[in-house]
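Student: Hello, beginner here. Can you help me understand the protein record under this note? Any guidance would be welcome.
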Amino acid sequence: MKKRITYFIITISVIFMGLLSRKFMFIFPQSIAPFVGDMFWAMMVYYGFRFLFLKLTILKSFLVAIIFSFSIEVSQLYQADWINNIRATTLGGLVLGYVFLWENLISYSIGIVLGVAIDKFVFN
């Protein structure tokens, strides 16, 4: 139970940091500023899976988070009206994104790898 609470707190903290990173993009170097929020988004996905599925190993959580994050990004290639209406909402845009960018796949990978590293440090 303590682990689940810790993962919940980390997930909420990462969401908060991701939202703040969008508001305060100017504190990051201009070349990476647009991608910091995506890194936090993917880290949140990783910790969300750790919270929901405590019995998954770190490796399996890593793989599920990568597959999920990459799937969401690839889904942005699909631009039907119904899904674009969802993306037009604040929550829909935060979850589904808007346009496919290869750079986001790199951001997601970095965010999840950082999440794994922090996870190993906190729990081992």
User: Anything to note?
Assistant: Residues 2-23 form the longest helix (22 residues). The chain has one domain: 2-123. The mean pLDDT is 94.
